[in-house]
Write a structure and sequence with these properties.
Helices cover 36% and strands 20% of the residues. The strands form three sheets. Strands 2-1-5-4-3 form a five-stranded antiparallel β-sheet. Strands 7-9-10-12-11 form a five-stranded mixed β-sheet. Strands 6-8 form a two-stranded antiparallel ribbon. A hairpin with a 5-residue loop joins strand 11 and strand 12. Helix 9 runs antiparallel to helix 10. It is elongated and about 85 Å long.
């Protein structure tokens, strides 16, 4: 912790406290406005964190504290990292010199806010984007600590945060909007075109032509519906509101059903190899969500992979959130295609990742991971024996408590 203090360093060391960076000591005298009232932060603990057992350097955000005279008495390691200023240079300096902040219009922030000379009823400044020297953007908020309401400022507490996380969130939202707009444009254009043509020239088309147009409209409407469902799933996953309605699930039967659907749509039956262990534990899961997982993984294997698609279902065990080992079921889907490059393995389950240019929104595997984790399971990706992609997810038994007691 990098804190300026007026107390004797020797006394602190004698008490076993860590050595602190200090500002020049003041001669002893009667308590002034800096003396802390009982239960309040004192000069050696400007942020008032000692009573909570917290070191300012443990805080994830930058913390800068100035005393009643406007001089910096606390400058934690996060603040040093964000500002690229050594703590020794900041401690004891005026706050406006240690943090020469400007707003986005280039105006100096401290004269604008005037924490020491402005209205005494103010309690602080809300978080806003400001600029450090060199134009680096930082999120800054301030709290005015007073001895009593409308009294003089006793402490100025400033928090600093980098803008990287907010930038990433904004980029993610922009990418989501762009993807949705792109994915909606094509099917909606088709739906609009065919319905307008049918309405305007119904009598000119044969029954077969009408059927073809209506089938195209139906397929595009299903595509829009699927995209909307994916967006709703993402919203629930990100907000932690994805509901899992558990009931007994025969996962081997579910795998067989998906394979039959793919062969009915034109895939060769010999392209699929299903291997199911006979000693599978009972599985309690949401059957609709399990279908969503299997459908996505098998569709990816067929669309992006090559050769035989192998589905292995076997018993396994996993460690739950409480650190206990419990029974589970593992499902592995492997193809014989080119596989996923090593440098892309870490991005497979992120939004908008696409293994190829063969269609898709890039949201499916992100949703699959969210569903598996909502069941308390795990999912991994790797390279299969034949060099193709291998996806393996493990689900715990998930039986209700009344069945396990």
């Amino acid at each position: 912790m990098t804190v300026g203090t007026n107390s004797s360093p020797g006394a602190a060391d004698a008490a076993g406290a860590p050595s602190l960076a200090t500002v020049p000591a003041q001669p002893p005298g009667p308590p002034g406005p800096e003396a802390a009232a009982p239960g309040q932060a004192g000069p050696a603990d400007p942020a008032g964190l000692a009573a909570l057992g917290i070191d300012p350097d443990d805080l994830p955000d930058g913390l800068v504290v100035a005393d009643a005279t406007g001089r910096v008495i606390c400058f934690n390691s996060a603040a040093a990292r964000i500002t690229a200023l050594a703590p020794a240079e900041a401690l004891g300096a005026r706050i406006e010199r240690a943090l020469p902040l400007e707003d986005l219009d280039g105006r100096r922030w401290w004269p604008l806010t005037d924490p020491y000379g402005g209205l005494a009823i103010r309690r602080g400044q809300p978080e806003r984007n400001l600029l450090l020297p060199g134009g680096r953007e930082v999120l800054v908020s301030a709290r005015y600590v007073r001895s009593h309401p409308a009294g003089p400022l006793r402490r100025l507490v400033v928090t600093l945060r980098g803008t990287e996380a907010r930038r990433r969130t904004e980029r993610s939202h922009a990418e989501l909007i762009a993807t949705v707009a792109h994915e909606l444009r094509s099917p909606l254009t088709s739906v609009k075109g065919f319905t307008a043509t049918l309405l305007a020239k119904w009598e000119r088309f044969t029954d077969d032509q009408k059927r073809l147009m209506l089938e195209t409209v139906d397929a595009d409407a299903n595509r829009v519906t699927r995209l909307i469902a994916e967006l709703l799933d993402i919203s629930r996953i990100d907000s932690g509101r994805l509901e899992v309605r558990r009931q007994p699930v025969d996962i081997a039967t579910a795998v067989g059903r998906h394979v039959q659907a793919l062969t009915a749509n034109g895939q060769a039956p010999e392209r699929f190899l299903v291997r199911v262990s006979r000693s599978l534990p009972d599985l309690w899961a949401d059957p609709d969500k399990i279908d969503q997982i299997l459908g996505n993984l098998l569709e990816n294997a067929v669309r992006h992979g090559e050769g035989t698609v192998t589905i292995d279902v076997s018993p396994t065990s996993l460690t739950n959130a409480a650190g206990k080992t419990e029974k589970g079921t593992a499902v592995t889907v492997t193809d014989e295609g080119p596989g996923i490059p090593e440098e892309s393995m870490g991005r497979v389950f992120t939004r908008f990742w696409r293994g190829s240019k063969r269609g898709g929104t890039g949201l499916g595997l992100y949703i699959v991971k969210g569903i598996v984790e909502a069941h308390g399971g795990t999912i991994t990706v790797g390279r299969g024996p034949g060099g193709g992609a291998e996806f393996r997810f493990i689900l715990p038994v998930g039986a209700p408590a009344y069945l396990t007691q």
